[in-house]
Amino acid sequence: MSSTQTLLVASLAAFTALACGDAPRPAAASTPAAASATKPGPVTPGPLPDGHPPVGEQLPDGHPQLASGAQRPELTDPSQFAGSALLKGELATTNVGRLMVTLRQKGQTGAKMPLWAYVVDLDDPEVEKKGLLAASGDTREFVFVLNKDTTILPSPLPKNVELEVELRYDADGSVDTREDAVFAVVDAARGDTGLSLVLEKPAQK
Predict the structure, then answer these.
(1) Cα–Cα distances in angstroms (integers) from residue 169 to residues 22, 147, 197, 200, in the given order
(2) Boundaries of domain holding 154
(3) How many domains is the chain partitioned into structurally?
């Protein structure tokens, strides 16, 4: 048999096999939609506390830096800062405004970003449960505990930095206005439970 005849016989045999059986089926190609259905999506960061700078922007020196897209780190530092403040004069009797206890890094220049903060509104009907005792004459005591459970800004505390606690009274409750604010500051260290401050409006000139 010539080579031409051999090639013809082989071609007929292949054609017969295709006619009698099922034709080969192409493998199913994976579509982009099917691939994306199993691919995990990006991690969405949890909500940040009110007043916290947006994630991804440059934060002040000494403030824990958060990379864009990162989860806010859990707060595990057991440190606490506690003490009392004596409100004097008209601050002892007012029921308007807000008291704010903040922990921050000492010696910062520019805007001082709080690490922890505890807030009491003076018109709160349960204000005594939050540490502001009843007035006695022209004085009123405010007992505070600032820790990982009471803070509204749960930032991890930076290591090896000096800290300070500020008590601020603000008549309109806004940190953006400073004209109506009265404040006192005291140095603090982790575990301090005997902090003492006095808050009084300066005498009018």
Answers:
(1) 86, 20, 12, 9
(2) 80-199
(3) 1
